[in-house]
Recover the amino acids of this structure.
């Protein structure tokens, strides 16, 4: 998700390079908005996927390298008869011959910041800022000269607030590497202080972390203490809705928690936001790695925030 920035800096120092950017998709498509591929005269770095789509994009990239640096093109590709693919989706690509003299913005391009690209006749002006980005529809008007493209650098990574550093918590953290999540990992037991990534917090601070989590966060509760599990769950359900509130446990634990939450005045609507047991339905294994994979797959099913926006000229 960030590797294209390092590749761009490295390749631009060596010679001419073109960049293929996925601006938007609809329906079934190989990769999402924000995906990049860099193309040189004899090499490819990264992938936009799709076989025939990528082959056509590489052709376009090498063709645009025959034009002046800064030259760009925007093209829509229906993934059907045109490319002989059965995906049935639609992809909007931008292909550009990188202007190697206009890469000063790379030094400020850090994850989570916003990259603004303004399409000009002679090239693309880019700057890095701090601001929102929202989805772009592939069937809307094509970006044209004067349009701005706005995207979150590194793409959207869902905050994952993980409470508990036992065997299951460690398995979740281990398998989360490489997935589009940003892990915030907490435990109250000092014995886990040496595990990389774990923040040891007093119990009250844990509840404060729940209250302060962003709405798009996924919260997963699997501590060593049912009482602590309950207090964290109650804190999660009393605040504004999170993207996911999950509690490890059996159907019996779920019933007990729901009954207690009702007695404590938590509304039926709020109780309905609790996922317990966690993990994809039908995955019944109890091994920590099985639970971890089933949970992470469940989180990947949550609606994604596409971090690319086009602003009309």
């Amino acid at each position: 998700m960030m590797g294209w920035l390092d590749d761009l800096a490295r390749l631009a120092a060596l010679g001419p390079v073109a960049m293929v950017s996925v601006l938007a998709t609809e329906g079934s498509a190989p990769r999402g908005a924000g995906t990049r591929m860099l193309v040189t005269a004899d090499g490819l770095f990264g992938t936009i996927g799709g076989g025939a789509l990528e082959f056509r994009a590489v052709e376009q990239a090498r063709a645009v390298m025959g034009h002046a640096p800064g030259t760009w093109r925007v093209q829509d590709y229906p993934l059907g008869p045109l490319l002989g693919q059965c995906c049935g989706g639609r992809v909007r690509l931008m292909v550009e011959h990188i202007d190697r003299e206009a890469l000063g913005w790379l030094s400020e391009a850090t994850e989570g910041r916003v990259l603004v690209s303004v399409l000009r006749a002679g090239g693309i002006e880019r700057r890095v800022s701090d601001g929102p980005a929202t989805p772009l529809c592939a069937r809307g008007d094509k970006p044209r000269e004067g349009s701005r493209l706005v995207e979150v650098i590194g793409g959207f990574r869902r905050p994952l607030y993980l409470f508990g550093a036992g065997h299951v918590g460690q398995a979740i953290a281990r398998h989360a590497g490489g997935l589009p999540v940003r892990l915030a990992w907490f435990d109250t037991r000092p014995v886990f202080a040496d595990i990389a990534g774990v923040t040891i917090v007093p119990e009250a601070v844990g509840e404060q972390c729940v209250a302060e989590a962003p709405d798009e966060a996924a919260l997963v509760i699997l501590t060593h203490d049912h009482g602590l599990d309950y207090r964290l769950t109650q804190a999660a359900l009393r605040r504004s809705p999170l993207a996911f509130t999950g509690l490890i446990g059996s159907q019996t634990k779920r019933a007990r928690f729901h009954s207690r939450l009702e007695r404590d005045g938590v509304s039926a609507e709020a109780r309905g936001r609790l996922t317990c047991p966690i993990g994809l339905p039908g995955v019944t294994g109890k091994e920590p790695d099985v639970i971890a994979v089933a949970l992470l797959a469940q989180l990947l099913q949550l609606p994604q925030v596409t971090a690319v926006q086009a602003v009309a000229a």
Remarks:
- Confidence is low (pLDDT under 50) at residues 134-139.
- The helical segments are 3-12, 52-64, 167-176, 203-212, 226-238, 251-263, 268-271, 288-300.
- The chain has two domains: 3-155, 158-300.
